[in-house]
Design brief:
Chain lengths: 146, 131
């Protein structure tokens, strides 16, 4: 059985007076509502043009089945090194956060409707990101010429 | 003040090659912040605002404990919502967690938790403001 585990550690020596902050959380990534693991991964490194809205990962229509509200996990890292650079990220037209140079995030994501895609837009300058999607039921788009 | 997050992803059974990588970061953080906390979340999101409205970037950690009260198991899902319009942007199942930078295009909004159905779910959370 597919077994993908994610572990998050948060630590700090100066955030809490008198003791060290040490948070550890581990989760096995499962299909939505099931106890079976995810079966697909897509990862890579891509460039984002300045102030150009780009889609990352599938649209709801590219996920098979009548219900495309599946479990999907996204790891996203901004590989820029200039501290002033950041990427606006959101879901469809809803802005959710800013990912600054060198920062990363790990979130669950599901396409609750056909247009609910992860959207990214580089600010200040063009930037490069590293990403990985863990999911299932994703089908490649049909060849437009087929 | 510094916060060091580390993510480790591993999978040795799904693909012909093993996935095993870790990434870490060193974040400068400032007030306001909330250390590791517990919240019994219900189906009324407005009662469970875990990040108060603000325009700064908040590094947010949330974990679904998989229980209603620390001992009774539950599989009910928990939504993370933008506090001003109750729009959900993430959903956590039992035992799942997330770590992300939250900022709604500079708008003064917060984050609230809401159980998708009428039930209690105990969630663990913390946040720190980008310094």
């Amino acid at each position: 059985m597919a077994t993908t585990t994610a572990t998050l550690r948060l630590s700090s020596s100066d955030l809490q007076p008198g003791n060290t902050l040490s948070i550890n959380a581990t989760s096995t990534l499962m299909k939505a509502g099931l106890t079976t693991g995810l079966t697909q991964v897509e990862s890579g490194v891509i460039s984002l043009a300045l102030e150009t809205e780009s889609r990352l990962g599938p649209l709801g229509t590219e996920i098979s089945g009548g219900v495309h509200d599946i479990a999907s996990w996204l790891y996203l890292c901004n590989k820029a090194t200039d501290d002033t650079y950041y990427i606006d990220w959101g879901i469809h037209e809803t802005n959710i956060g800013k990912l600054y140079a060198g920062d990363w995030m790990f979130i669950p994501w599901s396409a609750s409707d056909d247009v609910a895609a992860i959207e990214l837009e580089a600010q200040v300058a063009a930037q490069t990101i590293e990403y990985a999607f863990f999911n299932s039921n994703f089908i490649l788009a049909a060849d437009a010429g087929a | 003040m510094a916060l060091e997050p580390t993510l480790i992803l591993k999978d040795s059974t799904t693909f012909s090659d093993e996935i095993s990588f870790s990434v870490t970061d060193s974040l400068t953080v400032a007030a306001p912040a909330r250390g590791l906390s517990l919240e019994t979340v219900t189906s009324t999101g407005g009662n469970h605002i875990i990040v108060p409205a603000g325009t700064a970037i908040a590094y947010l950690y949330v974990r679904h404990t998989g229980t209603t009260d620390g001992s009774t198991a539950t599989a009910q899902l928990v939504d993370l919502e933008i506090s001003d319009d109750n729009s959900a942007f993430a959903r956590l199942g039992a035992g799942e967690f997330l770590f992300m930078p939250f900022n709604h295009a500079g708008a003064s909004v917060g984050v609230q938790l809401q159980v998708a159905h009428a039930s209690n779910v105990l969630c663990e959370y913390a946040y720190w403001t980008k310094g």
